[in-house]
Amino acid sequence: xxxxxxxxxxxxxxxxxxxxxxxxxxxxxxxxxxxxxxxxxxxxxxxxxxxxxxxxxxxxxxxxxxxxxxxxxxxxxxxxxxxxxxxxxxxxxxxxxxxxxxxxxxxxxxxxxxxxxxxxxxxxxxxxxxxxxxxxxxxxxxxxxxxxxxxxxxxxxxxxxxxxxxxxxxxxxxxxxxxxxxxxxxxxxxxxxxxxxxxxxxxxxxxxxxxxxxxxxxxxxxxxxxxxxxxxxxxxxxxxxxxxxxxxxxxxxxxxxxxxxxxxxxxxxxxxxxxxxxxxxxxxxxxxxxxxxxxxxxxxxxxxxxxxxxxxxxxxxxxxxxxxxxxxxxxxxxxxxxxxxxxxxxxxxxxxxxxxxxxxxxxxxxxxxxxxxxxxxxxxxxxxxxxxxxxxxxxxxxxxxxxxxxxxxxxxxxxxxxxxxxxxxxxxxxxxxxxxxxxxxxxxxxxxxxxxxxxxxxxxxxxxxxxxxxxxxxxx
Amino acid sequence: xxxxxxxxxxxxxxxxxxxxxxxxxxxxxxxxxxxxxxxxxxxxxxxxxxxxxxxxxxxxxxxxxxxxxxxxxxxxxxxxxxxxxxxxxxxxxxxxxxxxxxxxxxxxxxxxxxxxxxxxxxxxxxxxxxxxxxxxxxxxxxxxxxxxxxxxxxxxxxxxxxxxxxxxxxxxxxxxxxxxxxxxxxxxxxxxxxxxxxxxxxxxxxxxxxxxxxxxxxxxxxxxxxxxxxxxxxxxxxxxxxxxxxxxxxxxxxxxxxxxxxxxxxxxxxxxxxxxxxxxxxxxxxxxxxxxxxxxxxxxxxxxxxxxxxxxxxxxxxxxxxxxxxxxxxxxxxxxxxxxxxxxxxxxxxxxxxxxxxxxxxxxxxxxxxxxxxxxxxxxxxxxxxxxxxxxxxxxxxxxxxxxxxxxxxxxxxxxxxxxxxxxxxxxxxxxxxxxxxxxxxxxxxxxxxxxxxxxxxxxxxxxxxxxxxxxxxxx
Lengths: 476, 476
Hints:
Two copies of one chain form a homodimer. The first copy, chain A, has helices at residues 3-14, 22-27, 48-61, 112-121, 138-144, 151-154, 189-193, 227-239, 252-262, 284-301, 311-327, 347-361, 387-406, 425-428, 431-444, and strands at residues 18-19, 41-43, 65-68, 85-88, 95-98, 103-107, 124-125, 161-167, 173-176, 202-209, 211-212, 216-223, 246-250, 275-282, 304-307, 334-341, 367-370, 375-382. Chain A is of the alpha+beta class. Chain A has three domains: 3-90 and 446-463, Uridine Diphospho-n-acetylenolpyruvylglucosamine Reductase, domain 2 (2-Layer Sandwich), CATH 3.30.43; 95-212, 2-Layer Sandwich (Uridine Diphospho-n-acetylenolpyruvylglucosamine Reductase, domain 3), CATH 3.30.465.10; 215-415, 3-Layer(aba) Sandwich (Vanillyl-alcohol Oxidase, Chain A, domain 3), CATH 3.40.462. In chain A, a hairpin with a 4-residue loop joins β5 (95-98) and β6 (103-107). In chain A, α1 runs antiparallel to α3, α9 (252-262) packs across α11 and α12 packs antiparallel against α13 (387-406).
């Protein structure tokens, strides 16, 4: 049966929830990777069971189905590369809080920030905080096992999911886990769904674990003569078992970007010094307790440091981190943003590798990220129209990925594979491992309808034409 | 080919690591469920790659393989019900600590306590603490996603595993995840392995996340007029977002068991009052900070309470918890020990159900467990030789499981399914869910050699003859 016939059947079942308009399909044809593949229809479920109907028909008629939250992913994970139908979770956005048990009951289309705010109102805290949290959805966070700045101390999305419900690729309803913090009954398909990028079914709802909202926060900005010294100092801090809630590193190039954007040097007279921005969180007494030790560490290890004595002062210290990403586009109009992970034991080695990569590629590679878990954002900047630069960028990203894996690290810490990381999946995973994943895919999705064309097929997305669109969450 | 021929081939490859003696096979024929099924050989690998050799041959010749740690499981998960070969991880017991990153690198046969002690020496803490931790292994903990008393605040085994390595049922080596706290590259087969009870491959090594060792602990014992009041008081505490590291509940019958065993009442003049034992852990200032609030709660909610002012006093308070389990065997020579989980919102309802169950079954059902995560150990006591009692016990466990699921809870929080919980798997999981699990099993173990006969085949283990053996971890 043709897809047009299948779509007509779908319209009979779901009426106005199915949009086949040109504008509707175009808007759902791309995510933040900005590469467009037109679907035949966009379905906006009003209730979770609508998702079951979509998948049941899709499975029957072999129509590809790609689920999307708000499309904030940079990996192309939500781009419908094989056309077919897009399920948009926009209207599945309910959030409620169980304030006794410390659980959030959310639908997949709720934004991360809306879940966080609902929890906060009752004194609870949902730590995972992707930088797009005002826009990105819990469903999307689950799809790529999103992390953020709090990952090192508190964990990532996976660490906060206690139960999931949704539909198998066949359209059959399933629930994995219960709204309880312990569950050990049967194979753990809940966690298999986490990070599966919509390829093993569609999540419609989740139960998330919360922790008590920290009563106090304390922010400290430190600078270092060079990257190796900064990373070594961070290791010293971690070895003393001090756990910052946030520990953000910015290399020299990232700091220079921020300094250009703000028009002032982070520490007067010390332009372009790598920095580590620390935030400690916990009970009032707990945070107070840490200060002396942390300040002694800064005194010993840092070139300069400044603590925030108020939220306003903290915001000022945060400027360096918030401004660096957008300002990078002065260095090139194209960015290969890689969210690699390096084991702590190889931090200094990695800093030396990165210095070499900048030299050999003759490209700016501003790098910043989360030191408590080794998740660094390496941004290879180039000019799209400059073929020589583009070629050097491509070679640099290949070298980066090979090195990360050789250092015992990961090619992605929080973004997932989607399309963008497909050329590197087999650096991370042996043929046996890839074969096992594909066997699981076939077992749960025998007709291959859920988000086909992702993860296992190699696609070099930088070779595709890129749309000239601006998202609200794009860096200014 | 006969199993005898396959075993001869295995001996050629692994020599003295393969034991076919009568005593060796008998010792590996049962776990703590004490139901014996003789294997044809026991293999004790000296290096992890030996496991690959075993599985490769087993897969070729279709020999069932059951992996065991020390056999502390009560579920029959390590009993080789289909014979074949048993892999004993005894000699794969290396532990090392990465003190900077806060990671433990362990082999599957290391005991939980040995990993904890290695971490402690360097100021780090591995929270999961099954009560058999001096004997049980990390591999076993991973197999059943073991929990323990610390689960509510800190999480269970799954929450501390960052990477696994081992062998697929085909004998092929795989590594899931890296020694880093973030990883989002490819399907999450690491977590699919956690809780899969040796049915999807054999884990040989793991990287575990550690947290800073708490500097201070404070213990408080509280008693209540009845179970409903106790559980309601616990909910009040949790709602105030106070997070005890441990929050153990003992019902009237459990307290009476402990009081008989110790020869004194927990609170003078108040025999058989349900208790909640609380332990708070953290920084010195952090724990001090909590005390006033917690004591005010105890003043308001409890009938009586006593705090420990020293480790010795804390040990004294702990006596009630440590003694209750063993003393239960005065109430019957057989125990159906169910580690169910109840959502917090249904605590009081569950207490009322339990009172009814005790009345209707005319059996003692002492119940204790972990209130921060709802994981309660319900112990249905009866006399094996008394057919009427045995029948009432069987009816009671069925009723319990149905009620737990109806209340939105789990039939197992930390023990897994094994053989013992197989009659209840389909109360927890719909036919679609079971079918999905079985599809995953077939995808990774097409010849069905890894721990066959578990989880999906219904076995009523209380009908099997039970060995008269004593394990070092059995309650006195």
